[in-house]
Fold:
Amino acid sequence: MSPEQLDTLLETIPDVRDGLTRTERIILYVVHETQRERKGRNVPTAMLYGRVLEYVNLSEAELHVYLDRLGVRGDGRP
Structure:
């Protein structure tokens, strides 16, 4: 198995500890860190997208799919 194939496999298989994929874990980490920087305020999606791109390559539409799957809401409601 090539390193690229291994990376792809690791991206798609959820971790046994919490059921999150690597990309989902990165998104949640970036949301948490950015909220902390903003003193608890909500993180604009555009800002989140730019910061997530520093870690993984995904489209804006893919980010929205991940956010929906993770239950992150964009309207300020829990």
Observations:
- The CA atoms of residues 23 and 56 lie 7 Å apart.
- The two ends are 42 Å apart (CA to CA).
